[in-house]
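Example 3.2
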Amino acid sequence: MRYTELGHTGMKISHLSFGASSLGSVFRETNESESFKAVETAIEGGINFIDVSPYYGHYKAETVLGKALRNIPREKYFLSTKVGRYGKDGVNTWDYSAKRVTDSVYESMERLGIDFIDLINVHDIEFQAALPGGLQKVVDETLPALVELKKKGVVGHVGITDLQLENLKWVIEHSEAGTVESILNFCHHTLNDDAIVDYLDFFEQHGIGIVNASPLSMGLLSQRGVPVWHPAPKALVEACQKAAQYCNEKNYPIEKLAVQFSVSNPRIASTLFSSANPENVRRNIEWANEEPDWDLVREVKEIIGNQQRVTWANS
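Structure, written as tokens:
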């Protein structure tokens, strides 16, 4: 396992990290004993960075993770959780106000059974962009509240997350220097989309650590395929299906290639994946510690690009 400092935080985190969203039964119904074993397997395999959110499973993921961490020494892991995005009784809610995010941090610590959060993230800032105050509220209210908790020693570092890279850039540019210490972005360092590469210079110039997530691009880069809610256009779905078939013919699962590619950039501190299946966790660790077949990477990228162009031309 490779360990890289996350920006200037001092946290040297594993190049593959554990996303605990699955523990909230986000993707399938899970049981606690399997979830506990998945976390233990991650730690035993050298993973030392765990990410979660009160939103995942509407507080379930944090609760289950807290139980799983009871028998794991605190020095074995860095823990990241989030504020701003929540849910109850199946209804999603958002609140980026200073009071709510402050209360949320203490609530998360109680569920997780800890007295210190290594990294606190503002979750999916794109949703605040659509609320009164827009992204300026993240700059003027949300982040300052978290900085106050950092001064009190409640949290160690402050970050932001979003799918849209331009939102991350905007908040960093409009915040006081040093406020945002890391970003978490998903689906943008994958076999089908490496848009984050164009932003690496910007993040590094601001001393910001980079966490990548979803190496399988939310199911696009898998043999099983995408869930019904996946937002990808039909052309991309078909292109990735063709790529998966090609990898099968090469006896090289596309999931393996996807994980290996996502962790391959040394400028990205870590890549998050999520699974409540201990065997999947073990397998991903093994894959991440191997060099990808770069010829196959190039071939798969070409297949995806060509197939999209053919589909669009015929539509």
